[in-house]
Task: structure prediction
Amino acid sequence: MKLCFNQATTLENSNLAKDLEYCEKHGYDFIEIRTMDKLPEYLQDQSIDELANYFRSNHIKPLALNALVFFNNRDEAGYKETIAEFKNMLEVAGKIGAQYVVAVPLVTENKILKTEIKDSCVDVLTELSDLAEPYGVKIALEFVGHPQCTVNTFGQAYDIVQAVDRENVGLVLDAFHFHAMGSNLDDLKNADGSKIFIFHIDDTEDFPIGFLTDEDRVWPGLGAIDLDSIITVLKEKGYNGPASVEIFRPEYYQLGAEEAIKTAKETTLEVLSKYYDIKVASK
Result:
């Protein structure tokens, strides 16, 4: 299994250039680049070509652009914005060699019928699949474990991906989101493992289902998530894709960026090493 760093983990105490420097130093294989803030900040002073050159010259590689947000159940103007944004992301992914674009469902206070949510997700993801195919880029749907997210359990997300039925459309399995809305482990056991493109590893404080927020996340192995069961199922299914550590925690943003990146690696490896042989590059 390869080790990946999600930039949310240093959202407020670092930038893309520093994240790349420290991730390279500490032996990460991949990075998930935040396109809503970290990438635009980087491009104020440097170019996409310079970023592409960095990846060509170093061990670390771009795993995913994170993220195309709120892609489903939009009005006509919102739908057009989503397609335009995705096309731009494909250009960036093509230039730097990113394998995936993460797609995040709509979060809203409005009540939308599940059939309408599924229909919209399937229609949009099918169109995105067509657009992504010439670039060799895959789309990873990430359900969000919050009551106001239109797709908030593994089972619901998997059903959508099955309906799309495209090789380049799969899932992000985020352990926090899986736990936060009480996703069913049997749904994971019954799923096609090849449809899980990215595994987000994290943990959380022990609040009730439906009350958890991203800020409740803690380092892997230090919380209430049954990571052992999730990882055991992934291992049994032959999952050997990346494990990407993603933590949104205000206290961790008070750490130095390198300390956070180093701690993320150490806690992640401690959890994963019971199940996977992980050889981390070092300089």
